[in-house]
Amino acid sequence: MLEVHGLEAAYNESQVLFGVDLTIGSGELVTLLGRNGMGKTTTVRCIMGLLKPKSGVINFAGRSIAGKASYRIARTGLGLVPEGRQIFPNLTVRENLIATARLPHSAGEQPERPWTLDRVMALFPILRERSAHWGNQLSGGEQQMLAIARALMTNPRLLILDEATEGLAPLIRDEIWSTLAELKAQGLALLVIDKHVSALADMADHHVILERGRVVWQGNSDDMRRNADLTQSYLGV
Ligand SMILES: Nc1ncnc2c1ncn2[C@@H]1O[C@H](COP(=O)(O)OP(=O)(O)OP(=O)(O)O)[C@@H](O)[C@H]1O
């Protein structure tokens, strides 16, 4: 579904990605791991068209999306829950959700059940309760749920979450994890960047570890659990 090969990227003269490879199959949950500043967000920005790659291949659903405008990439069925949530503070919950709503991509596979206001509110009942509240009146956890719900309203085929549980209390974090597991069970492909590796290990199909803009390890959860050194050296956990 998503194939990234030999991705290189730079901010002005400073190169930060040096040939990143990453593959996500249909309905898979893949994690992108690594300590701060290793290039995870930059990889996501290249995939989403927010930063033009220096070189490399990015194919989604069989088509090249490398260097395309972000709105066109979003239309192919890629949804992003960005770092820091970035919900609209001066819109209500309901308005935040409507602002990004988009019907499924006409040329692509049509999901059997598109995401609607009702369906995202059934997934996160708290958003129904808060639907008339302003974005900035929500707690951190509620804002995060809104950010996920808003991305779902674009009816993506692959959802990318960049640090979606950062700063959240453990109980809320668990709620987010079970929502992601439910989305995966419904067939959505997910690329998840997060520091809570052990929670992710239970549901991820594959992990990719970045170190200074290079993939230093890839494998499944069993391989990762067998390599305690790995998480120690590259993730510092
Ligand atoms: N806008 C920018 N301009 C210049 N350098 C940047 C910019 N954004 C990130 N960098 C640098 O690029 C490198 C990779 O950063 P990136 O944000 O991709 O890392 P990350 O793995 O997502 O870490 P974090 O968890 O801290 O976001 C870092 O050295 C960072 O300082």
TrEMBL record:
Matching InterPro entries, A to Z?
A: AAA+_ATPase, ABC_transporter-like_ATP-bd, ABC_transporter-like_CS, BCAA_Transport_ATP-bd_LivF, P-loop_NTPase
Q: What is the superkingdom listed in this entry's lineage? A: Bacteria
Signal peptide: which range, if any?
none
Q: Which residues cross the membrane?
A: none
Biological processes annotated in GO: L-amino acid transport
User: From the UniProt record, which GO molecular function terms apply?
Assistant: ATP binding; ATP hydrolysis activity; branched-chain amino acid transmembrane transporter activity
Which keywords does this Swiss-Prot/TrEMBL entry list?
Amino-acid transport, ATP-binding, Nucleotide-binding, Transport
Q: Which PANTHER family does UniProt cross-reference here?
A: ABC TRANSPORTER ATP-BINDING PROTEIN (PTHR43820:SF2), HIGH-AFFINITY BRANCHED-CHAIN AMINO ACID TRANSPORT ATP-BINDING PROTEIN LIVF (PTHR43820)
Family recorded in the similarity comment: Belongs to the ABC transporter superfamily.
Q: What is this protein called?
A: Branched-chain amino acid transport system ATP-binding protein
* Organism of provenance: Limibacillus halophilus
